[in-house]
Design brief:
This protein is mainly beta. It has one helix and 18 strands. The strands form three sheets. It has an eight-stranded antiparallel sheet, with no helix packed on it. An eight-stranded antiparallel β-barrel has the order 11-12-13-14-15-16-17-18. A two-stranded antiparallel sheet has the order 6-7. The radius of gyration is 19 Å and the shape is globular.
């Protein structure tokens, strides 16, 4: 488990879900699993994201348990009545080679207990994941001065429970994942993903004037969890536009404009929450 673990991973036949993860500068692995919630009766499919930070072993990492957030609201996080809580779900991944992971999960849905014995709705799965993105700065051949400054996890403390994973790629492109909640009182999770380009505007160092524009942010919907997943159920909705602007280290501002009225438009400041470990090169 070296810095090259950092990036996005997926299984092509299950396009529309996957992992983004980073080996952090403290040696731990931060993983976000973007997927869907198991079907509940006749309820429509819902997005789901789970996360954890764990110390890796030699070529493997296990997240036991994964954490989840519920009760939040878009653009407010968990400020009202939401909470971050341990789930009964865990996952383990083994590094096969530079561009492949073997991924196992044990998902435990709602359960019940009687006189000390408990039962859950258990689903397990094994997938071989391949690399989707490579984080800049993870080898001596893919260096970028922007990676050290901007790759990592970002959030606003007043909106705890939602935030962003930002990946700076070797070609000065960027990928962003926005993990949040729906803009209603359901408390359900939502997530969006976009690709953009890093733009550096001339200014005297050490000041910054950098923008990252994501002109096409998408929200994958309609997917189902585990063995019920069918790629034909997926709908990649064009959610809107998003931009990040940085004028100081570790502090930025996000602006969004959604095509959906309920998400609206707005802006707020963000600060760095976690930083990836990058390779030291001569």
């Amino acid at each position: 488990m070296d810095p090259t673990i950092s990036g996005s991973w997926h299984q092509p036949v299950r396009d529309g879900e996957g992992l983004t993860q980073m080996l952090l500068d403290n040696g731990q692995v931060l993983t976000y699993w973007f997927t869907y919630a198991p079907a509940e009766d006749d309820a429509p499919p819902a997005q789901q994201w789970l996360f954890d930070i764990s110390q890796p072993g030699d070529g493997w990492v296990e997240h036991r348990p994964l954490w989840t957030a519920s009760g939040g609201r878009f653009d407010q996080g968990l400020a009202t009545h939401g909470q971050v809580k341990r789930s009964s779900t865990w996952m383990r991944q083994h590094r096969v080679d530079d561009d492949r992971l073997h991924f196992f999960y044990d998902y435990r849905g709602p359960g019940f207990c009687i006189t000390g014995a408990c039962w859950w709705d258990v689903q397990t799965g094994r997938h071989d994941l391949i690399r989707l993105t490579e984080l800049a700065g993870t080898t001596c051949d893919n260096q970028s001065p922007m990676a050290q400054r901007f790759s990592g996890a970002w959030y606003n403390p007043d909106r705890d429970g939602e935030g962003f994973i930002l990946e700076i790629l070797p070609d000065e492109k960027a990928v962003i994942y926005w993990f949040t909640h729906t803009p209603d009182d359901s408390g359900k999770q939502a997530w969006m993903v976009g690709t953009g380009e890093v733009r550096l505007y001339p200014i005297l160092p050490p000041a910054l004037n950098v923008s990252i524009d994501f002109e096409q942010v998408h929200q994958p919907v309609g997917g189902r969890f585990g063995s019920d997943f069918e790629p034909t159920d997926m709908e990649l909705m064009e959610w809107g536009e998003l931009s990040l602007h940085f004028q100081a280290p570790n502090v930025g501002e996000i602006h969004w404009n959604s095509h959906f009225e309920e998400y609206g438009s707005g802006s707020y400041t963000i600060e760095r929450l976690a930083r990836p470990m990058l390779t030291e090169c001569d």
